[in-house]
Amino acid sequence: MSGRSATAVTELFATAPLNLIWDVATIYTPVGLYPKVGLLPAVVEVRDQTRDWDRVGRTRQLTHSDGGSVIEHTRDC
Q1: Could you tell me how far CA 50 lies from the centroid of its own chain?
Q2: R_g over Cα of the chain
Q3: Which residue has the higher pLDDT, 67 or 56?
Q4: Is residue 59 helix, strand or coil?
Q5: What is the pTM of this model?
Q6: 3-state secondary structure string across 3-53
Q7: Measured in whole angstroms, how far is the alpha carbon of residue 67 from the centre of its chain?
Q8: Which residues make Cβ contacts (< 8 Å) with residue 4, sequence separation at least 6?
Q9: Quick one: which of 73, 70, 37 has its CA closest to 55?
Q10: Cα torsion at 50, 77, 11, 15 (round to 10°)?
Q11: pLDDT digits (tens, 9 = 90+) for 10-43
């Protein structure tokens, strides 16, 4: 029996004042903020986030309602 898997990498850069970006991006958990819409699965869990989402270099894994997941990193641009 063979399994299927897929990997993708996406980067998104916001062009807005830093204080506005941090006010939006530092929400502790995105669960419930991203409901299932069309083909996009909902975020149902955040894993491996040991500290607040408020510094460059933080990492967390978002688990989706379809069983997939993504890893997010904060970085300095």
Answers
A1: 15
A2: 14
A3: 67
A4: strand
A5: 0.60
A6: CCCCCCCCCCCCCCCHHHHHHHHCCCCCCCCCCCECCECCEEEEECCCCCC
A7: 14
A8: none
A9: 73
A10: 110
A11: 666 667 777 776 666 666 677 877 777 778 888 8
